[in-house]
Design goal:
The protein has about 230 residues and is of the alpha/beta class. It contains nine helices and ten strands. A hairpin with a 2-residue loop joins β9 (about 200-205) and β10.
Length: about 230
C-alpha cells in the first residue's frame, strides 16, 4: 500500500511532561483512517506534531516520502495536508467567502468557492455573513470548506462532529462519505463508532501516548468490543 504519511517512533511533550512514547502510524493514500483514544491520551499532540505546531523530541514524520519532522506549518500545508481543527477556529471578523479564500490553494479541477457552496448550501446562503454570525454547525461546515479550499491530499478532521445538532452531524458524515468516494485520503478523530465503521478503512487506538491497537475494517468489526474497552464507551 502507498503510505501518504508515515510516523515512526514519535516522542513529544510539553516542557517536562512527556505525552507521546514512540507513536507509529502510517496513513495510506486513498483511504479513511480513524485515530481514537480517550481524552488526554495523545491524539491532539500527535496531530500537532504532524502539522508542525509542536516539535517532537524524537522520531520521524514523512509526508509524501519527504522528511517533514519539525517542519513549520506552512510547509506541511504546502506538502498537501489540510486540517479541520478541534474548535473550528474560523476567522470571526471575515465573511464566509473571505474565510474560504484566505488560505486557498487553487488546483486545476480542485475545490473552489462555488464547489464548497454546492457541498454546503447553507454556506452559500450566508457567504456575506461574518464568521461570528454563524451557528456552530455552520462554522464547522466553514472550517471543512476552508480546509478543502487548500486542495489537500490528506484531510485531517479533529472532532468535526462533536457537539453538533443531529441534522448537521448527518450532513457532515454524508459529505465525508462523498469525499471518500472521490478518493481523498482522510484522517478522522471522532467518537461516533457507528458512523466511523461505515466509512473507515483503518483504525489506530492510542493509550497513554502509545498505539495499543490497530487494524483494518474487518479487524475492527471482529474486535470492536476490545476497542470500546480502550475508549471506555
Amino acid at each position: 500500500m502507498n503510505a501518504l504519511v508515515t510516523i515512526k517512533d514519535l516522542h513529544a511533550g510539553y516542557g517536562n511532561t512527556q505525552v507521546l512514547f514512540g507513536v507509529d502510524m502510517d496513513i495510506t493514500r486513498g483511504q479513511v483512517s480513524t485515530f481514537m483514544g480517550r481524552n488526554g491520551m495523545g491524539k491532539t499532540t500527535t496531530i500537532r506534531c504532524l502539522m508542525g505546531l509542536l516539535k517532537p523530541s524524537a522520531g520521524q514524520i514523512t509526508i509524501q516520502q519527504t522528511d517533514m519532522t519539525g517542519a513549520p506549518p506552512f510547509r506541511v500545508a504546502q506538502a498537501g495536508v489540510g486540517l479541520v481543527p478541534e474548535g473550528r477556529h474560523v476567522f470571526p471578523s471575515l465573511t464566509v467567502s473571505e474565510n474560504l479564500r484566505a488560505t486557498a490553494q487553487p488546483r486545476a479541477g480542485g475545490w473552489t468557492e462555488e464547489r464548497v457552496y454546492d457541498a454546503f448550501p447553507r454556506l452559500g446562503q450566508r457567504k456575506r455573513n461574518l464568521g461570528f454570525q454563524l451557528s456552530g454547525g455552520e462554522q464547522q461546515m466553514l472550517a471543512i470548506g476552508r480546509a478543502l479550499m487548500t486542495n489537500p491530499d490528506l484531510l485531517i478532521l479533529d472532532e468535526a462532529t462533536e457537539g453538533l445538532a443531529p441534522l448537521i452531524r448527518e450532513e457532515i458524515w454524508t459529505m465525508l462519505g462523498r469525499l471518500k468516494s472521490d478518493g481523498l485520503s482522510i484522517l478522522l478523530i471522532d467518537k461516533n463508532l457507528d458512523e466511523l465503521s461505515r466509512i473507515s478503512d483503518r483504525y489506530f487506538v492510542i493509550e497513554r501516548g502509545e498505539i495499543v491497537w490497530r487494524g483494518d475494517a474487518a479487524d475492527f468489526k471482529l474486535h470492536r468490543t476490545e476497542v470500546e474497552q480502550y475508549l471506555h464507551l
